[in-house]
Write a structure and sequence with these properties.
Layout (H helix, E strand, L loop, with lengths): L10 H9 L4 E2 H11 L8 H13 L3 E4 L8 E4 L1 H20 L7
Antiparallel strand pairs: 1-3, 2-3
Helix pairs in contact: 1-2
């Protein structure tokens, strides 16, 4: 099977897509990414908004209407869910084939 050209996702992009399984604005996305990663991934606003622009161009996320005109709210698309699932499967396979013994 041919690997998708968008894989592997960066750790940051993976967590952003996970965070956007529910609609969220920028600050909430940054908080959710930090929470999901147990504090391992912390983003500056510039990093987040650069990543969001890339994800919008790739049709992995889309902006959604909101009552608050001061905030842009984003959510993952079906294409974003597909690529997130493929990367999850890729990582699961790597974990599966990694021997437990000899790594400690």
């Amino acid at each position: 099977m041919k690997r998708d050209k968008n894989l592997p996702l960066t750790e940051t992009v993976y967590y952003i897509l996970l965070a956007l399984l529910k609609p969220a604005h920028g600050y909430l996305i940054m908080e959710k990414v930090e929470e999901l990663s147990d504090g391992q991934v912390r983003m500056a606003a510039g990093t987040l908004y650069g990543a969001l622009e890339t994800l919008l161009r790739r049709n992995f996320i889309k902006s959604v209407q909101t009552d608050d005109s001061r905030r842009k709210v984003y959510v993952i698309t079906d294409e974003g869910k597909r690529i997130l699932c493929l990367d999850c499967q890729r990582m699961s396979h790597m974990i599966h084939v990694t021997p437990r013994e000899g790594l400690q």
